[in-house]
């Protein structure tokens, strides 16, 4: 029966994907010398919050994900579950695992990455799947055991560069349609030109801390206050991990 070991050699943004995608370079080793005809891999990628420390401002933002900042060390967070087919090899081979990701703030992983500002994010890769081996006796199918895993570290800067390539300076926020309708009426009543301006106006009226002042090219400032460069876009976002419900993407 074949025995496998996995190693992650690096992580990079996939530049030609239709939606934000990370490419994980894997080295797969078979330690018994059994020729592998094919390998059908299933990999769950999980964030391991226990393996890094957090600044005070990060703890505050993590509070709405873990209910209490101290609980951010109590569990892992699923980033994605993906599959890949690996061709024939003997002893070892390398392959890339494409991992679609989302910046949707209704997704736990999206909230986590929004909260962390710098450093490295520890990831755990859990493997299972099916190995097809060939020998003089014929073909054999074996299931990969559940204990196979490896770890790697994703730079926060790599994540932010990937998201900025698709949503520059922006984040996704899901609102109920009724809330979007009410916000649209407020936007018309106040003369706000963008959804971001309307929300900033409501924040100022509530006495909340205003976002940093920044006026984008082609985005006039709302009378009485600054605009926010990182507005939530009007188009639909990545929907792979978006939960079902009567909602709409709001800015």
Q: How many domain units?
A: 2
CATH class of the largest domain: Mainly Beta
Task: Describe the main β-sheet briefly.
Answer: 5 strands, antiparallel
Helix content: 10-25%
The first-to-last residue Cα distance is 54 Å
| Rg calculated over all Cα atoms | 23 Å
Principal-axes shape call? elongated
Indicate the low-confidence ranges by residue numbers: 214-251
Average pLDDT rating: 81
The helix count comes to: 5
- CATH fold field value of the largest domain: Immunoglobulin-like
**Strand percentage:** 35-45%
Reported CATH architecture of the largest domain:
Sandwich
Number of extended strands: 10
Structural class: alpha+beta
In N-to-C order, the SSE pattern is EEEHEEHEEEHEHHE
Structure description:
Helix 4 packs across helix 5 (195-205). The chain has two domains: 4-166, Immunoglobulin-like (Sandwich), CATH 2.60.40; 174-250, no CATH class. The protein has helices at residues 56-66, 108-115, 156-166, 177-190, 195-205; strands at 4-13, 21-30, 36-47, 77-86, 92-100, 120-135, 138-143, 149-155, 173-176, 247-250. It starts with a strand and ends with a strand. The chain has 251 residues and is α+β, with helices and mostly antiparallel strands. The radius of gyration is 23 Å and the shape is elongated. 24% of the residues are buried. Strands 3, 4, 6, 7 and 8 form a five-stranded antiparallel β-sheet that branches. The protein has a three-stranded antiparallel β-sheet with strand order 1-2-5. It is built from five helices and ten strands; from the N terminus they run E-E-E-H-E-E-H-E-E-E-H-E-H-H-E. A hairpin with a 2-residue loop joins strand 6 (120-135) and strand 7 (138-143).
């Amino acid at each position: 029966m074949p025995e496998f070991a996995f190693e992650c050699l690096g992580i990079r943004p996939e530049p030609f994907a239709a939606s934000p995608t990370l490419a994980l370079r894997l080295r797969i080793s078979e330690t018994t010398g059994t020729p592998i005809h094919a390998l059908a891999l299933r990999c769950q990628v999980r964030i391991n919050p226990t393996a890094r420390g957090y600044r005070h401002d990060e703890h505050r933002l993590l509070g709405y994900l873990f209910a209490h900042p101290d609980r951010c060390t109590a569990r892992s967070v699923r980033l994605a579950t993906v599959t890949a087919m690996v061709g024939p090899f003997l002893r070892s081979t390398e392959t890339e695992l494409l991992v679609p990701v989302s910046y949707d703030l209704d997704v736990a992983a999206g909230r986590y990455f929004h909260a962390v500002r710098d450093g490295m994010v520890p990831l755990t890769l859990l493997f299972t799947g099916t190995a097809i081996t060939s020998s003089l006796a014929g073909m054999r199918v074996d299931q990969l055991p559940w204990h196979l895993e490896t770890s790697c570290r994703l730079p926060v800067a790599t994540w932010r560069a990937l998201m900025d390539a698709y949503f520059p300076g922006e984040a996704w926020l899901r609102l109920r349609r009724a809330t979007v309708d009410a916000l649209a009426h407020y936007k018309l009543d106040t003369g706000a030109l963008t959804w971001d301006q309307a929300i900033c106006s409501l924040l100022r009226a509530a006495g909340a801390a205003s976002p940093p002042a920044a006026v984008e090219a082609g985005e006039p400032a709302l009378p009485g206050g600054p605009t926010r460069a990182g507005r939530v876009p009007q188009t639909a976002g990545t929907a792979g991990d978006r939960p079902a419900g009567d909602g709409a993407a709001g800015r």
